[in-house]
Amino acid sequence: SAIIKGSDRSETKSTCDSILKIIEGKPGGTPIDYVINLRWANLPSIVDDANVVVIGKRFHHSKKGDLKKLHIRFIELGFQVLEDAGQFGGGPLTYRLTELARKLGNMTVLEITLSHCIAENHDRVAEILESLTIL
Fold first, then answer.
1. Alpha helices in 2-121 (DSSP H)
2. Taking Cα atoms as reference points, which of 65, 135, 57 lies closest to residue 89?
3. Which pTM value belongs to this model?
4. Average pLDDT per block of 10 residues along the chain, 135 residues long
């Protein structure tokens, strides 16, 4: 099952609380296996903004090979992949989701930041969403 929740970019406490409450409530009685915080950002001009996907490494909870598999898949799709230790994201929502995942045990939490150009391209966003099925 999947949940798609739009929220504010600043990830306020109330937004974080709301999303965690949904996940802890196990919608439909089904345990949540994966939570992907998919964001967009205006990246620095030195980065090829039209083709960049950033995989957050500051806060994540995943199986050993998941980040590598995703990295490879994004490259196969023609994206430039950057890894982030907090420069582009890793905010309060992903941190709190990671803490929840550690408590629950078997939930994967990842943060992916898209360039603004990619976020506006529906076909590219669809490719990214489809690629998450390899996890």
1. 13-24, 66-76, 92-104, 116-119
2. 57
3. 0.83
4. 62 86 76 86 78 87 88 95 74 89 86 90 95 89
